[in-house]
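Hello, quick one for you while I still have it in my head. A protein chain has come my way and I'm curious about its shape. I'm sending you its amino acid sequence along with the backbone structure tokens. I'd be grateful if you could look everything over and explain what you see. Here's the protein in full, and shout if anything looks odd to you:
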Amino acid sequence: AGLYDARGIATVSAAAPAGWEFVGWSGNASGASPSATVTMSAPANVTALFYAGLTIAADGGGSVAYSYGAVSGVVPAGSTETVYAPVGTAITLTAQPSSWTQAFVSWGGDARGTSGSTTFTLDGPASVSASFGTSLLAFAAVAAAIAAVLVAALGPLPVPGRAREQPPPVAPPPSRGGGPGPPVAAARGPRGGAGARGPRARG
């Protein structure tokens, strides 16, 4: 504010504080340059417009998509980006895992929650972060694959507390001809040999 001579020239300049971005002038000045001039042919009013910054950080497990009004974009995995919008703007954030092995964990910074999509209302400079971790489905898939390989290589694992069944005994093959037969008991006659005497004849 100030007093100027009629037909005088007033110069105005804008400097954005940290976390803000100068976007232009309204009123009796226009344009996006931080410096503007106004010809004082009558009382004038000039307003500098600033947008608040929202810094979005995505860790290495996935990216973050953002949108508000006609503006949209994606913050790649492992990077940080600051977007600027008018105070009061509702910005939609959506976490996008980089692969099936990754899963969204939670929001951090000025945002909270574990839902993959959230809406953040900008009331000044702010920052949000998206954290990702290994998917439980990936763990299950890897465990199932390992189990399948072990079963294929080693066979079914024994059930605890159950005795393993023993195979039935195998009978020896029958012997072929040419071998000695079973022992045969020798027949025995009456006692006595060649010198044995018979009964005497009576005369």
Notes: The helical segments are 136-154. The radius of gyration is 50 Å. Residues 192-196 have pLDDT under 50 and may be disordered.
